[in-house]
Design goal:
about 260 residues; alpha/beta; Rossmann fold; about 45% helix; about 15% strand; globular
Length: about 260
């Protein structure tokens, strides 16, 4: 089974890799032998991660995922250093909570631009390069159960993740003839920087959400390892357009404003 889920020497780009799930994904993949390209804005955190992963095939590149020109340079640098990106883990994301009637329009634009527009732009560019190189590949979009069920006070986040899930399915159909698979993982509540930031702003709501999880707890980062390896490796060779939900049963309960 370990061979089936193997990603050794596979060139994998992880966005949002300086903290939270992105950092965990980058570290886990690098320790399993992948050639990991980690992208994030916070250079000092990437440098610290590179130090932690000394001895692995790890390349840290600082860029804002919403900057198309910067991401093109990142992909050029990655190709020159380790080859064509074979697996994209579209993980970068933000949330700016607030009631619908009070949310600043700029907050809406920032969330949509980071969580949806940037994910589309990077996936498009990775797909173009795979097609030009005549190579198969896998795009894994990190969505959320917020894109499946309603969740109050985070309307731009919900819209961005629902859009990302729809984009996943549509790209899967279009790119399948090129041997490029496109799938998504929809995590529930995890102990991450993004979730913790939300908890600090909305402690009572976060506590209520935790109480409603059927399994009685938030998820651990390592509980996303197998789903990611499935979609990134040959084990998921006949999977495309799928959304793998990892949430302890929470999306079956739902939570409205």
């Amino acid at each position: 089974m370990s061979d089936l889920l193997g990603i050794r020497d596979r060139v994998i780009l992880v966005t949002g890799a300086s903290s939270g799930l992105g950092r965990h994904f980058a570290e886990m993949l690098a320790r399993r032998g992948a050639k990991v390209v980690a992208v994030a804005r916070r250079t000092e955190r990437l440098d610290e991660l590179a130090h932690t992963l000394a001895g692995t095939s790890f390349l840290a590149l600082s860029a804002d995922v919403t900057d198309a020109a910067a991401m093109t340079r990142v992909l050029d640098q990655a190709e020159a250093a380790v080859g064509t990106i074979e697996v994209l883990v579209n993980n970068a994301g933000i949330t700016l909570p607030g009631p619908v009637a009070e949310l600043p329009r700029e907050d809406w634009r920032r969330v949509i631009d980071t969580n949806l527009n940037a994910a589309w732009m990077i996936a498009q560019e990775v797909a173009r390069r795979l097609i030009a190189a005549k190579k198969p590949g896998s795009i894994v979009n990190i969505a959320s159960i917020a894109g499946i069920r309603t969740m109050g006070l985070v309307s731009p986040y919900v819209a961005s993740k629902a859009g990302l899930i729809a984009l996943t399915k549509n790209m899967a159909v279009e790119l399948a003839p090129h041997g490029i698979r496109v799938n998504a993982i929809a995590p529930g509540l995890f102990d991450s920087e993004l979730g913790n930031n939300y908890a600090r702003r909305n402690p009572e709501r976060r506590a209520k959400m935790r109480e409603r999880i059927p399994m009685g707890r938030v998820g651990r980062h390592d509980e996303l390892d197998a789903p990611l390896l499935l979609l990134a490796s040959d084990a998921g060779s006949y999977m495309t357009g799928s959304v793998v939900v990892v949430d302890g049963g929470f999306s079956e309960i739902g939570l409205t404003a």
